[in-house]
């Protein structure tokens, strides 16, 4: 009897993690990129990315690394309206999808993690998430400034 009980318990240590992974992946939360995201690309570099909804539509440019054709790491998504700079996202991208950062809008800021197609979307993020988002955005702005300085573009380097 004891052999059957303890033998079954050993099998549980293998079965439970597998069952949990099956449940997570069948609910769509297992790490695959959501398929309903709207992908855009930088008109010049053709780097692909998902634009947070609060940037609205229009030509959007990525300044940062582009790995395997997708925006990656710290950087900035900037919407351009003809010759005018529009709203911008400063933060971290992973495989073309925003992770965390800040969107600088005319009426203020949206800060937090990327959720439901936008930065800081849904419920008000916890204070630490907002702090982390602003720290990430500050780091992204510094990297953009360094990039522009390396290109001898002092005006843009000073702006960021």
What does this structure look like?
The protein has 160 residues and is an alpha+beta fold. Helices cover 34% and strands 35% of the residues. It is built from three helices and eight strands; from the N terminus they run H-E-E-E-E-E-E-E-E-H-H. The chain has helices at 2-26, 127-150, 154-159, and strands spanning 39-41, 48-50, 60-67, 70-81, 84-94, 97-105, 108-115, 118-119. The strands form two sheets. It has a six-stranded antiparallel beta sheet, with helices on one face. The longest helix has 25 residues, at 2-26. The radius of gyration is 21 Å and the shape is globular. Residues 14-34 have low confidence and may be disordered.
What's the topology here?
Blueprint: H1 2-26, E1 39-41, E2 48-50, E3 60-67, E4 70-81, E5 84-94, E6 97-105, E7 108-115, E8 118-119, H2 127-150, H3 154-159
Antiparallel strand pairs: 1-2, 3-4, 4-5, 5-6, 6-7, 7-8
At a glance:
The protein is α+β, with helices and mostly antiparallel strands.
């Amino acid at each position: 009897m004891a052999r059957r009980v303890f033998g079954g318990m050993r099998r549980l240590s293998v079965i439970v993690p597998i069952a949990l992974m099956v449940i997570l992946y069948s609910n769509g939360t297992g790490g695959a990129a959501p398929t309903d995201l709207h992908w855009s690309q930088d008109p010049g570099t053709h780097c692909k990315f998902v634009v947070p909804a609060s940037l609205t539509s229009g030509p959007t440019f990525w300044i940062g690394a582009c790995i395997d054709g997708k925006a990656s790491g710290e950087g900035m998504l900037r919407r351009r309206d003809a010759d005018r700079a529009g709203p911008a996202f400063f933060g971290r991208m992973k495989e073309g999808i925003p992770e965390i950062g800040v969107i600088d809008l005319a009426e203020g800021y949206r800060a937090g993690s990327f959720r439901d197609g936008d930065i800081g979307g849904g419920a008000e993020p916890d204070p630490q998430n907002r702090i982390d988002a602003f720290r990430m955005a500050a780091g992204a702005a510094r990297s953009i400034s360094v990039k522009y300085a390396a290109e001898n573009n002092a005006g843009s380097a000073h702006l960021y």
